[in-house]
Each structure stands twice: as structure tokens, then as C-alpha cells.
Specification:
This protein is an alpha+beta fold and 127 residues long. It is 19% helix and 43% strand. Copper (II) ion (CU) binds next to loops.
């Protein structure tokens, strides 16, 4: 009776889901946050790629685009954080993640707003 139609509809939905999931995972790169470090510190991706930062630490972290001064550079400075406004995750905890899709070529430095000595770079090349 109606069971066949429902079955076909469910299968179509599943296939669509798999197609979308496959497409998005192909365009995604993971950076882990562990031991107060971004790993890898520099990732090179093609334009249109989504970068997913996954926090594996017990403490909260943040991913903010721009530059942070540390060590000698920071000495005597009142201000050490220079966010450029491209992206800012806000703090997120263990097991949580932040994603950002890089549409344009360029070099995108970023840092952790909680621990400005944690830094990384995303290099975006032509698609
Ligand atoms: Cu941090």
C-alpha cells in the first residue's frame, strides 16, 4: 500500500543527505587545539574550504582573526591583541568546535583571545 512510497522517499532523503555530507567533508580541514597549541599551526587550503577548530583541551579557547603580540614584541605594550574583525569564535570548551569558511585567497593569521601566545595561520590559495 503506501509503505513502498514512504520507503522510496526515506531512501531518497538518505541519499541526498549522504551526497551533501560527502561534499562538505571534502571541503573541510580540521585544526585541533590541544596542550595550548593549534595543530597544525599553519594550514594551507583552497578558497571555499571550511576550517574546523576542535578543542581537545580541558580549558576553554577562542579563535580570533588578526595578530597578537607576545614575548619581546609585547614588552611595554598596553595592547597586545589586534583582532581584524574577520572572525571571532567566542570561547568554546572541550569537545566543542568553531568553523569558518575561507572564500578569498590570502594569508589569515589568528590567535586565541584567552591565551594570546596561541597563534596560527590559514593560507588560502586559489580554488
Ligand atoms: Cu586558548
Amino acid at each position: 500500500m503506501g509503505h513502498g512510497a514512504v520507503g522510496v522517499r526515506a531512501l531518497t532523503g538518505l541519499l541526498l543527505f549522504l551526497a551533501v555530507a560527502t561534499t562538505s567533508s571534502a571541503g573541510e580541514v580540521v585544526v585541533t587545539i590541544k596542550g595550548l597549541r593549534f595543530e597544525p599551526r599553519t594550514v594551507t587550503v583552497k578558497a571555499g574550504t571550511t576550517v574546523r577548530w576542535v578543542n581537545l583541551d580541558e580549558t576553554v579557547h577562542d579563535v580570533t582573526s588578526g595578530k597578537a603580540l607576545t614575548g619581546r614584541e609585547a614588552r611595554g605594550r598596553k595592547r597586545v591583541r589586534f583582532p581584524d574583525g574577520r572572525f571571532s569564535s567566542g570561547t568554546f570548551g572541550k569537545g566543542e568546535a568553531f568553523t569558518f569558511t575561507f572564500e578569498e585567497e590570502g594569508v589569515y593569521p589568528y590567535f586565541c583571545n584567552v591565551h594570546p601566545f596561541m597563534k596560527g595561520v590559514v593560507v588560502v590559495t586559489p580554488p
